[in-house]
Amino acid sequence: MSTSLKASIAPVPSANDFLDIVLSKTQRKTPTVIHPGYKITRIRSFYMRKVMFTKDAFTEKLQAILSEFPVLENLHPFTSSLLKYVDCVAI
Q: How many separate domains does the chain show?
């Protein structure tokens, strides 16, 4: 009826690996050079573009991780009640 919980979930990267993944993507996909003669508005827009790209990359990666986890309502009733019980006991 339902598949194994572990079968559909990819390993979640550690915090440092996650940062490295997102920041290296930002470095590859956005401009990287600021010249001393640029106006402050151009420099500001340069860094705002980097910040917004990084925000979008974090959001995209986190949504991909969360979408792999099963929804309790879609699990087999036994597995769902077991997870609810384990959660209550762990507290």
A: 1
Q: How far is residue 52's CA from residue 14's CA, in Å, rounded to a whole number?
A: 23
- Contact residues for 43 (Cβ-Cβ < 8 A; gap 6+): 34
Distance CA 36, CA 56 (A): 28
Task: Give the structural domain span for 60.
Answer: 15-29+38-88
Phi-psi region of 2 (alpha: psi -120 to 50; beta: other; left: phi over 0): beta
**pLDDT score, position 3:** 54
pLDDT of residue 91: 47
pLDDT digit string, tens, across residues 50-70: 999 999 999 999 999 999 887
pTM: 0.72
Tokens of 72: 């309790």
